[in-house]
Amino acid sequence: MKTYYGIDWNEIWNEVNGANIRCEAFGECATIWQSREEARGFLNNAIKNPERVQFILEKLPLSPGLRVLDIGSGPGTIAVPVAGQVDHVTAVEPSPGMADVMEEYAAEKGVDNLDIIRKRWEEIDLSTDLKGPYDLVFASYSLGMQDLNKSIRMMCDISSKWVYIFWISGTPSWEKGLIKLWPVLHGKEFCCTPQADIIYNVLYSMGIYPNIRVKEIESCNRFPDLISAVSQMSQVYNIENNEQEGILKDYLSEKLVKDKDGFALRETNTSTVIWWETGKTV
């Protein structure tokens, strides 16, 4: 892997991503959504806030006849609507709850051209687990893996044309709360998720010179009451006792906006899409 000015961007990804994982906010990527109920809630929230899904669907070069691979598919938020526009979709999703809900969602939408591989991307054997190559490979806010270089190489190896990555630029709204509360709750600083600039530099050092676009995406999470909000957000903030719960409750009581339907958490974040043609790598 090339380095510039002595910088190994893959190692920087590993350091930042590893520090974020060790904070244990949201739980661990593949285990937090083991519950079907939690996974269904995630899907319902995405359906109620369609702007990010629309952004992804608009950016992907979808057309009939394509074979598509979705890495880290969650409950099928993108995989299911994509399946309605292409020949076939293979979804890689390790979380039991997410994979189960994806099956249900596909059945509800009458989708029968979607296969689900219940593994982490890092555990995938390209020759035995997948039926490549795929015309389009994408990962939508699902780069929780270490060794980004290896994961991207796998994406390129299994794609015959396009690779798309959707991620974040700037500090996302949900992490601003974690930055503020983590020292109070846990006595240490919160380590943020690695952002899109590191991904771009990893790609550049691999000889991949991608396209990039950003867009501000608005969302609104709703809760029937403050108690429900605290309950749902407790896992995010790794709440373990009554004192921590009280701190979180005070924070949310200031952050949430009360209206006729309950309490709303309105946020704006910068979504980023990075993409390239696999034939143009060097």
How would you describe the overall organization of this protein?
α1 (9-23) packs antiparallel against α8. The chain has helices at 9-23, 36-48, 51-59, 79-83, 96-108, 148-158, 173-186, 196-205, 226-233, 242-255, and strands at residues 67-71, 88-92, 114-117, 134-140, 159-169, 211-223, 257-259, 262-277. The protein starts with 8 loop residues before the first helix and ends in a 5-residue tail after the last strand. It is α/β, with parallel strands linked by helices and 282 residues long. The model has no long low-confidence stretch (mean pLDDT 90). It is globular, with a radius of gyration of 19 Å.
Write the layout of secondary structure elements.
Blueprint: H1 9-23, H2 36-48, H3 51-59, E1 67-71, H4 79-83, E2 88-92, H5 96-108, E3 114-117, E4 134-140, H6 148-158, E5 159-169, H7 173-186, H8 196-205, E6 211-223, H9 226-233, H10 242-255, E7 257-259, E8 262-277
Parallel strand pairs: 1-2, 1-4, 2-3, 4-5
Antiparallel strand pairs: 5-8, 6-8, 7-8
Helix pairs in contact: 1-8, 2-5, 9-10
